[in-house]
Amino acid sequence: MPTLIEIAHEQGATDERAIAHLGALVSEWGMLADFCFADMLLYLPTADKKWIVAAQVRAATGQTLYDSDLVGLGADLIEQAMLDQAFNSQKVVTGAIQVESQQDPVSLMAIPVRCDDRVIAVLTREWSTRSGRKPGQLERTYLTIFDEFTKMISTGLFPFEGRVADATVAPRVGDGVIVLDADARVRYASPNAVSAMHRVGVSTNAVGQSLAELGVAQTAARNAYERREPVVEEFEQTAEVTLLTRTIPTLKRVGGQLVVTGGVVLLRDVSELRRRDRLLLTKDATIREIHHRVKNNLQTISSLLRLQARRLQSEEAVSAIAESVRRIRTIALVHETLSHEAGEDISFVEIVRPLLRLVEEGLQSSDRPVKFSVDGDGGRLPATIATPLSVVILELLQNAVDHGFPEGSAGGAVLVNLSHDDKLLTIRVTDNGRGLSNDFDIGKATGLGLSIVRTLVTTELAGTISMRSALVDDSVGELQISTNGAGTVVDLKIPFIGE
Ligand SMILES: Nc1ncnc2c1ncn2[C@@H]1O[C@H](COP(=O)(O)OP(=O)(O)OP(=O)(O)O)[C@@H](O)[C@H]1O
Ligand SMILES: [Mg+2]
User: Which one of 4, 283, 290, 494 is most buried, counting C-beta atoms within 10 A?
Assistant: First the structure.
């Protein structure tokens, strides 16, 4: 189905301003159809002086005359005469037409659509007086509103320039309508609007009062009237009720001035919507808060351990506790990072960097400087993977420092490489230190460090680990591995279940 813009171009329309005006009209006209309880068609003049339907809208408040789509069709002779008349006279024309689906004649109102100083299209309202709604106060009021908008369309005051409502949440006529007079006093409130006002505690008859007096959506009318354009505002009326309002002033030109003749407030109770938004928000905030507290608790534990270590005489015990403190700080680090993240996932590099710093800090002697760096990207991981993985990496980094660059060595470099595809996360820790002894076998390593690594990688993370001596080919940047030198490469492969 061709769009309005395509049809306009097909018919040789070149005035982009006029086309934008029609686009804006069509984006607003659901409201117009609702106010007049009728089908509306937008007719464009064709090159051969006929008319073509460029867009169609049905009312949510009334029955349609047209089950089929009329876009792209032409006008019959009677319609054409009325459209011509509206176009040429620049005035609203009413009459009767025959419609296939209806036995009786159908009423047609042809409204010239004005942009700047000329008429660019004709908008029609088409309705059957027989199937129409029984006129009550609502019907009468809405039709007067529609009349105001009709005048605005034919004088180029509607649609408003550059204002397109967000259709997904914008209130519609069916949600609730308050009609205001020129002084912003309530002339009429639709049943749905009355219900919404009841919910915020307005039980008096609103008619004759201003919104400020009612205490509902106070600034909506003022802003719309002052700016002479539609204003969308949301009001937290009470702790439970949130109202979304769209206030559209009706205008007329008097001399060179725009005068506000009244306005309509479309209002929708969005409390439920907002309550869910807030819940989501607080769930996120709660998760962050929990991570923050876990981090604090872990820090408390590591301080307690440090206090205890100070009272110990045995060097072995002191260093065992120092290691525990380091491991706990690593886990705290993950939680700290998680406490800044919006979701439950974490960008893994964001943990590796502070891990490197943690090890760097622990390396007090400056006689054997070690350069730490990280390269690549590990993607985003859930905390369940990020936490054990950080402990693993800490152990590997610590080993590189402890065994690669023991006291008396000259120092060197340690590089952590991260990469991932949608299946596998690959981590490589390389150092250019002393290297592994010839008989080293990771399967037989009995130290606590590698035991932790092995357990976490193979059971917790369902991955694999391998260690080998570094080769010249492993050199990257600062990490130069010489032919006679040595170094260690540790490879981890973890099934990737991040994003
Ligand atoms: N990067 C490395 N360079 C050289 N040797 C290493 C390296 N990583 C591990 N090793 C060797 O593997 C052994 C086992 O390491 P592991 O981490 O299990 O124990 P540890 O470091 O001796 O003690 P712990 O980690 O429990 O304090 C080390 O003693 C060391 O000989
Ligand atoms: Mg170790």
Answer: 494
CATH 3.30.450.20, domain 173-269, yes or no: yes
**What are the tens digits of pLDDT across the range 293-305?**
888 889 999 999 9
Residue of 415, 446, 450 best suited for mutating to test ligand 1, as the one with most atoms within 8 Å of CB: 450
- Distance in Å, CA 402 to ligand 2 centroid: 7
Residue 364 pLDDT exceeds 70: no
Question: Which residue has the least CA distance to atom 17 on ligand 1?
Answer: 449
Cα(434) to centroid(ligand 2), Å: 14
Q: What's the CATH fold of domain 367-499?
A: Heat Shock Protein 90 (3.30.565)
pLDDT tens-digit map of 143-174: 999 999 999 999 999 998 865 555 566 789 99
Using 50, 70 and 90 to split pLDDT, how confident is the model at 365? low
Write out the residue limits of the CATH 3.30.565.10 domain(s) in the chain. Answer: 367-499
* Residue/partner pairs of 322-326 with CB below 8 Å, 24 or more apart: 323/398, 323/448, 326/358, 326/362, 326/394, 326/398
Q: Which pLDDT score, from 0 to 100, does residue 37 have?
A: 94
Q: String of b and e for 457-480 (b: at least 16 CB within 10 Å)?
A: beebbebebebeebeeebbeeebe
